Amino acid sequence: MQHRDGYIIDVSYPLHFHKEMQPVWLCHTIQTLGCAVPDISKPYRYCELGCGPGINLLVAAACNPAGQFTGIDFNQAHIASAQALAKKLNIENIRFIESGFEEFATNNSEKFDFIVSHGTWSWLPPKAQAGILQLIYQSLKPQGLVYLHYMCYPGAARLTGLQKVLYETAKITGGNSVQGIQNGMQLLRILANNGAGLFVDNPEIEKELLALEKELPAYLAHEFLTDYWHPQHSADLHRIISQTGVRFIGSADGFENMDTLSVPGNLQPILKNLPGQALRETVKDMARNQHQRLDVFQSSPQTLDNENHLDLMNQTVFRALPGMPSPGPLEFKTPIGTIPGPAEMFSPLLAALAQGPQSFYELRQIPPFKAEPGLLLQALNMLMWADYAHPVRAEQETAPACVNLQAWLDKQQLPLRLLPECGTAIMTQTQAS
């Protein structure tokens, strides 16, 4: 097992695509919350910290030709392979830089409209976290967006015992990180099968172990073998990030922005009457037993008035995604249980989208949504969350690099389908978070 600054570097991170960090998705999600966002119909700059092998950034660059994309990672093998692939596929609006975050923050002179980081913060040493904060403070443009994924309490607490066994087993394993994680998983299974108190007293942890046993060892190695495995309470994380001058706006997961759906109904009156954002977010995490968050922060946020907000929403165009169901009732399998999608609401919406791209204004003319734009927005957010629909990219400049990237993905048998008109991609089979 090889580490650099406490993080493993001897095993490459497997493919994971995250739609929530793509620019079209981010802008739409934050605009639905009533805030002005960067105009991505014009040239903009986007920086990913901890880009790994670069798949999220390569998709973003290929599908969004108006943007300039920068990926930062301290793993030499990740950067070398990403650079070679971008060159091979003629994706020209992208660059990859081998650097630690603190070093890049010190040397960087560019300003960014987006600074995003997934799967890094909770696994990093303090100096690397300080580099992220420094970059946000000095390099984020006004109204620029920060996307930060991290592990949070209370949900992540159930993983602490498992992580420690995996980490300590890997430390004394003679082979690489994959071998270390395999040995650790074998030991955890032996403990579970022989009645270790952790599993007896906490039956849910047995379910966690079963879920982990289905994952790729390389993914588990990156997830659990860092020297700095550190979940946080969201309120504490928000206070830290606020030191850079940005403000918490909401989640990149649109479902989590809808308290009436994502929080159990009997807890909603309690939540509504709680003063203070920090306490409310803490209670939400408890209500959902949240174990990770996809938080979005903004520099100098500007709240839209009702007229401008509705006007911008009216101009947003949505299209059906492959696999969208036929008109009828829906069921959304959410982290808090199955939520029904009534046919009287979703059938006409699905029928309209099946005819082709539709603007928010056009969809507002459907009877269930007349004079109910908030209801329409909620329905569309659920369709987006379920990968049934997506906003269309505002500018429709051609994206020729998508052809090359899709051909490469198909050759590698990677389950990712590019959607250049939406500035994103969709996974064609289940993946881990």
From TrEMBL:
Residues covered by the Methyltransferase regulatory domain: 218-297
Domain Methyltransferase: 41-194
Pfam families, sorted: Methyltransf_31 (PF13847), MethyTransf_Reg (PF10119)
The protein's name in its UniProt record: SAM-dependent methyltransferase
Organism the protein comes from: Advenella faeciporci
Origin organism lineage: Bacteria, Pseudomonadati, Pseudomonadota, Betaproteobacteria, Burkholderiales
